[in-house]
Design goal:
single chain; 95 residues; alpha+beta; GMP Synthetase, Chain A, domain 3; four-stranded mixed beta sheet; 3 helices; globular
C-alpha cells in the first residue's frame, strides 16, 4: 500500500498512476492499494508513522480516507469497496 497526500487542487487519476507504475516499476513494486490522506502522520524526525496504517490495513469498512485498488483488468486504480474486499479475503480475487 502507498499512503499519499495530493497537492492542493490536484485530483487522483487511477489510470495515469496505473500506467506510470506499469511503465516505471517492476510488478512486485507497484502498490496494490493507494490511500489518499489529507495529512500524513510523521515523527519528530520527519519519518512517516506507519503503525496505524498497518493496523487498519485495507478494510473499506474501517478506513474513511479514499482508498483505491489496482485493478489489472481495468488497467486502473479503482475505488475500493466491500465487494472487492470480500473477494480478496475469500480468495476469488488474486493479488
Amino acid at each position: 500500500m502507498a499512503a499519499v497526500r495530493l497537492k492542493p487542487g490536484e485530483s487522483f487519476d487511477g489510470e495515469s498512476l496505473y500506467a506510470f507504475t506499469r511503465d516505471k516499476l517492476p510488478i512486485y513494486a507497484a502498490p496494490r492499494f493507494v490511500r489518499i490522506q489529507n495529512v500524513l502522520e510523521i515523527t519528530g524526525t520527519f519519518k512517516q508513522c506507519k503503525g496505524n496504517l498497518v493496523k487498519e490495513g485495507f478494510d473499506p469498512n474501517i478506513i474513511t480516507d479514499p482508498l483505491f485498488f489496482r485493478d489489472e483488468k481495468k488497467k486502473s486504480y479503482v475505488p475500493m469497496n466491500p465487494n472487492i474486499y470480500a473477494n480478496i479475503l475469500d480468495g476469488s480475487l488474486n493479488l
